[in-house]
Amino acid sequence: MRGSKAIGIMGGTFDPIHFGHLVAAEAARSCFGLSEVVFVPSGSPPHKADRFVTTAEHRFLMTVLATTTNPYFRVSRVEIDRPGPSYTVDTIEALRARLGSDVRIYFITGADAVMELMTWNRPDAILEMCELIAATRPGYPPADIQRLRQAVPEANAKRVHTIEVPALAISSSDIRARVAQGKPIKYLVPETVEHYILKSGLYGGPLATGRAGAGPLSGFYR
Ligand code: ATP
Ligand code: MG
Fold it and tell me: How far is residue 155's CA from residue 217's CA, in Å, rounded to a whole number?
Protein backbone atom coordinates (compact mmCIF):
# COMPACT_ATOMS: atom_id res chain seq x y z
CA MET A 1 0.00 0.00 0.00
CA ARG A 2 1.31 3.39 -0.93
CA GLY A 3 0.72 6.37 1.32
CA SER A 4 -0.28 9.76 0.08
CA LYS A 5 3.11 11.43 0.29
CA ALA A 6 4.76 12.04 -3.05
CA ILE A 7 7.98 13.75 -3.95
CA GLY A 8 9.56 14.80 -7.23
CA ILE A 9 13.13 14.48 -8.40
CA MET A 10 14.51 16.62 -11.17
CA GLY A 11 17.91 15.45 -12.32
CA GLY A 12 19.99 17.44 -14.74
CA THR A 13 23.31 18.89 -15.67
CA PHE A 14 21.88 22.35 -14.91
CA ASP A 15 24.67 24.03 -16.87
CA PRO A 16 22.99 26.44 -16.17
CA ILE A 17 19.58 25.91 -14.56
CA HIS A 18 16.90 27.95 -16.35
CA PHE A 19 13.21 28.85 -16.20
CA GLY A 20 12.28 25.77 -18.27
CA HIS A 21 13.53 23.50 -15.46
CA LEU A 22 11.87 25.63 -12.79
CA VAL A 23 8.51 25.93 -14.54
CA ALA A 24 8.44 22.18 -15.24
CA ALA A 25 9.24 21.36 -11.59
CA GLU A 26 6.57 23.73 -10.29
CA ALA A 27 3.96 22.45 -12.75
CA ALA A 28 4.74 18.86 -11.69
CA ARG A 29 4.54 19.83 -8.02
CA SER A 30 1.15 21.43 -8.33
CA CYS A 31 -0.39 18.84 -10.72
CA PHE A 32 0.75 15.82 -8.71
CA GLY A 33 0.51 17.28 -5.18
CA LEU A 34 4.22 16.78 -4.53
CA SER A 35 5.36 17.75 -1.05
CA GLU A 36 8.77 18.72 -2.45
CA VAL A 37 10.88 18.66 -5.57
CA VAL A 38 14.51 17.75 -5.15
CA PHE A 39 16.88 19.08 -7.81
CA VAL A 40 19.85 16.78 -8.30
CA PRO A 41 22.71 18.33 -10.28
CA SER A 42 24.76 15.57 -11.88
CA GLY A 43 28.33 14.96 -10.86
CA SER A 44 30.23 13.76 -13.87
CA PRO A 45 27.50 13.18 -16.43
CA PRO A 46 27.88 10.02 -18.54
CA HIS A 47 25.68 11.51 -21.29
CA LYS A 48 27.60 14.73 -21.83
CA ALA A 49 31.04 13.26 -22.42
CA ASP A 50 31.29 15.10 -25.73
CA ARG A 51 31.38 18.58 -24.35
CA PHE A 52 32.90 20.76 -21.67
CA VAL A 53 30.84 20.63 -18.49
CA THR A 54 31.11 23.38 -15.91
CA THR A 55 32.45 22.32 -12.53
CA ALA A 56 29.82 20.76 -10.27
CA GLU A 57 30.21 23.42 -7.57
CA HIS A 58 29.23 26.21 -9.98
CA ARG A 59 26.24 24.21 -11.23
CA PHE A 60 25.23 23.34 -7.67
CA LEU A 61 25.43 26.97 -6.53
CA MET A 62 23.39 28.20 -9.49
CA THR A 63 20.75 25.57 -8.70
CA VAL A 64 20.62 26.71 -5.08
CA LEU A 65 20.32 30.35 -6.13
CA ALA A 66 17.54 29.53 -8.59
CA THR A 67 15.47 27.57 -6.09
CA THR A 68 15.67 29.80 -2.99
CA THR A 69 12.35 31.52 -3.64
CA ASN A 70 10.34 28.30 -3.77
CA PRO A 71 9.79 26.67 -0.35
CA TYR A 72 8.98 23.33 -2.01
CA PHE A 73 12.28 23.12 -3.88
CA ARG A 74 15.51 21.77 -2.51
CA VAL A 75 18.86 20.80 -3.96
CA SER A 76 20.73 17.57 -3.29
CA ARG A 77 24.50 17.07 -3.46
CA VAL A 78 24.15 13.30 -3.67
CA GLU A 79 25.44 12.96 -7.25
CA ILE A 80 28.05 15.66 -6.90
CA ASP A 81 29.58 14.03 -3.84
CA ARG A 82 29.46 10.50 -5.25
CA PRO A 83 32.68 9.64 -7.07
CA GLY A 84 32.57 8.19 -10.58
CA PRO A 85 29.92 8.65 -13.26
CA SER A 86 26.44 9.84 -12.23
CA TYR A 87 23.72 7.29 -12.76
CA THR A 88 20.13 8.31 -12.07
CA VAL A 89 19.28 4.77 -11.02
CA ASP A 90 21.78 4.95 -8.11
CA THR A 91 20.28 8.24 -6.95
CA ILE A 92 16.73 6.94 -7.04
CA GLU A 93 17.78 3.71 -5.33
CA ALA A 94 19.40 5.66 -2.48
CA LEU A 95 16.34 7.86 -2.16
CA ARG A 96 13.95 4.91 -2.24
CA ALA A 97 15.97 3.18 0.50
CA ARG A 98 15.79 6.31 2.64
CA LEU A 99 12.09 7.04 2.07
CA GLY A 100 10.80 3.46 2.30
CA SER A 101 8.13 2.09 -0.02
CA ASP A 102 5.32 4.32 1.25
CA VAL A 103 6.33 7.47 -0.58
CA ARG A 104 5.68 7.87 -4.29
CA ILE A 105 8.65 9.13 -6.25
CA TYR A 106 8.11 11.01 -9.51
CA PHE A 107 11.06 11.59 -11.79
CA ILE A 108 10.52 14.81 -13.74
CA THR A 109 12.08 15.10 -17.16
CA GLY A 110 11.72 16.68 -20.58
CA ALA A 111 9.65 14.56 -22.98
CA ASP A 112 12.57 13.96 -25.31
CA ALA A 113 14.64 12.68 -22.40
CA VAL A 114 12.13 9.85 -21.85
CA MET A 115 13.36 8.19 -25.04
CA GLU A 116 16.94 8.80 -23.90
CA LEU A 117 16.14 7.37 -20.50
CA MET A 118 15.62 3.98 -22.06
CA THR A 119 19.29 4.07 -23.06
CA TRP A 120 20.44 4.86 -19.51
CA ASN A 121 21.80 2.46 -16.96
CA ARG A 122 19.01 0.02 -15.80
CA PRO A 123 15.95 1.89 -17.12
CA ASP A 124 13.62 -0.87 -15.90
CA ALA A 125 14.84 -0.42 -12.34
CA ILE A 126 14.17 3.32 -12.62
CA LEU A 127 10.60 2.67 -13.77
CA GLU A 128 10.04 0.14 -11.01
CA MET A 129 11.08 2.62 -8.35
CA CYS A 130 9.40 5.74 -9.65
CA GLU A 131 6.86 7.15 -12.06
CA LEU A 132 7.85 9.59 -14.78
CA ILE A 133 6.49 13.05 -15.43
CA ALA A 134 7.43 14.13 -18.94
CA ALA A 135 7.24 17.84 -19.74
CA THR A 136 5.86 18.45 -23.23
CA ARG A 137 5.34 21.68 -25.09
CA PRO A 138 1.71 22.86 -25.32
CA GLY A 139 0.04 21.31 -28.33
CA TYR A 140 2.35 18.27 -28.32
CA PRO A 141 0.51 15.90 -30.65
CA PRO A 142 -1.29 12.99 -28.93
CA ALA A 143 0.51 10.65 -31.34
CA ASP A 144 3.82 11.81 -29.90
CA ILE A 145 2.56 11.23 -26.36
CA GLN A 146 1.58 7.76 -27.47
CA ARG A 147 5.11 7.29 -28.83
CA LEU A 148 6.52 8.38 -25.48
CA ARG A 149 4.55 5.69 -23.68
CA GLN A 150 5.65 3.16 -26.27
CA ALA A 151 9.26 4.00 -25.49
CA VAL A 152 8.94 2.26 -22.14
CA PRO A 153 8.07 -1.42 -21.64
CA GLU A 154 4.30 -1.93 -21.86
CA ALA A 155 3.89 -2.92 -18.22
CA ASN A 156 5.20 0.47 -17.17
CA ALA A 157 3.43 2.67 -19.75
CA LYS A 158 0.87 3.79 -17.16
CA ARG A 159 3.73 5.12 -15.07
CA VAL A 160 4.55 7.77 -17.66
CA HIS A 161 2.58 11.01 -17.19
CA THR A 162 2.78 14.21 -19.18
CA ILE A 163 2.43 17.88 -18.30
CA GLU A 164 2.45 20.87 -20.61
CA VAL A 165 5.23 23.36 -20.06
CA PRO A 166 5.20 26.56 -22.12
CA ALA A 167 8.87 27.34 -21.33
CA LEU A 168 10.03 24.13 -22.99
CA ALA A 169 11.89 25.97 -25.73
CA ILE A 170 14.48 27.27 -23.25
CA SER A 171 17.68 25.22 -23.14
CA SER A 172 20.98 25.43 -21.30
CA SER A 173 22.89 25.08 -24.58
CA ASP A 174 21.13 28.12 -26.00
CA ILE A 175 21.88 30.09 -22.83
CA ARG A 176 25.58 29.15 -22.98
CA ALA A 177 25.71 30.19 -26.62
CA ARG A 178 23.97 33.47 -25.86
CA VAL A 179 26.45 34.32 -23.10
CA ALA A 180 29.37 33.51 -25.40
CA GLN A 181 27.89 35.79 -28.07
CA GLY A 182 27.19 38.62 -25.62
CA LYS A 183 23.42 38.27 -26.06
CA PRO A 184 21.04 38.81 -23.14
CA ILE A 185 19.87 35.92 -20.98
CA LYS A 186 17.52 38.03 -18.90
CA TYR A 187 14.08 36.36 -18.43
CA LEU A 188 15.55 32.99 -19.43
CA VAL A 189 17.22 32.37 -16.06
CA PRO A 190 16.51 33.84 -12.60
CA GLU A 191 18.29 37.14 -12.03
CA THR A 192 20.52 35.65 -9.34
CA VAL A 193 21.72 33.03 -11.83
CA GLU A 194 22.26 35.65 -14.52
CA HIS A 195 24.43 37.67 -12.13
CA TYR A 196 26.31 34.57 -10.99
CA ILE A 197 27.11 33.61 -14.60
CA LEU A 198 28.36 37.05 -15.47
CA LYS A 199 30.30 37.55 -12.24
CA SER A 200 31.98 34.13 -12.51
CA GLY A 201 32.79 34.59 -16.18
CA LEU A 202 31.08 31.33 -17.11
CA TYR A 203 30.35 30.34 -20.73
CA GLY A 204 32.84 32.74 -22.24
CA GLY A 205 31.03 35.80 -20.92
CA PRO A 206 32.70 39.23 -20.75
CA LEU A 207 34.61 38.41 -17.53
CA ALA A 208 35.86 35.02 -18.72
CA THR A 209 39.63 34.52 -18.82
CA GLY A 210 39.68 31.19 -20.63
CA ARG A 211 37.26 29.08 -22.60
CA ALA A 212 35.37 27.96 -19.52
CA GLY A 213 35.39 31.08 -17.44
CA ALA A 214 37.56 32.49 -14.72
CA GLY A 215 39.09 30.83 -11.71
CA PRO A 216 40.08 27.35 -10.59
CA LEU A 217 36.46 26.21 -10.27
CA SER A 218 35.71 26.73 -13.91
CA GLY A 219 35.21 23.18 -15.17
CA PHE A 220 36.66 20.10 -16.75
CA TYR A 221 36.87 18.28 -20.05
CA ARG A 222 35.72 14.71 -20.18
P1 ATP B 1 21.36 21.13 -22.68
O2 ATP B 1 20.85 22.18 -23.62
O3 ATP B 1 22.80 21.29 -22.30
O4 ATP B 1 21.00 19.74 -23.10
P5 ATP B 1 19.05 21.31 -20.95
O6 ATP B 1 18.44 22.66 -21.09
O7 ATP B 1 18.39 20.18 -21.69
O8 ATP B 1 20.59 21.37 -21.27
P9 ATP B 1 19.53 19.61 -18.71
O10 ATP B 1 20.25 19.97 -17.46
O11 ATP B 1 20.18 18.71 -19.70
O12 ATP B 1 19.13 20.99 -19.42
O13 ATP B 1 18.08 19.05 -18.38
C14 ATP B 1 17.68 18.54 -17.15
C15 ATP B 1 16.25 18.00 -17.28
O16 ATP B 1 15.36 19.08 -17.59
C17 ATP B 1 16.08 17.00 -18.43
O18 ATP B 1 15.15 16.03 -18.00
C19 ATP B 1 15.52 17.82 -19.56
O20 ATP B 1 14.74 17.04 -20.44
C21 ATP B 1 14.65 18.81 -18.79
N22 ATP B 1 14.52 20.09 -19.49
C23 ATP B 1 15.46 20.75 -20.18
N24 ATP B 1 14.98 21.91 -20.67
C25 ATP B 1 13.69 21.98 -20.27
C26 ATP B 1 12.64 22.94 -20.46
N27 ATP B 1 12.84 24.04 -21.18
N28 ATP B 1 11.43 22.71 -19.90
C29 ATP B 1 11.24 21.55 -19.19
N30 ATP B 1 12.18 20.60 -18.97
C31 ATP B 1 13.38 20.81 -19.50
MG1 MG C 1 19.20 18.44 -22.38
Answer: 44
Nearest to 115 by CA among 140, 92, 145: 145
Residue nearest to atom 7 of ligand 1 (CA): 171
H or E element at residue 157 = none
Chain segment 57-80, per-residue pLDDT in tens = 999 999 999 999 999 999 999 999
Residue 134 within any structural domain of the chain:
yes
Predicted structure pTM score: 0.90
Could you tell me if the CB of 135 is within 6 A of ligand 1?
yes
For residue 154, the Cα-to-chain-centroid distance in whole angstroms is 25
- The verdict on residue 112 lying in a domain is yes
Element (H, E) at 114: helix 111-117
From the CA of 169, give the closest atom in ligand 1: 27
Kindly give the distance from the C-alpha atom of residue 70 to the centroid of ligand 1, in angstroms, as a whole number. Answer: 19
- Helix, coil or strand: residue 68: coil
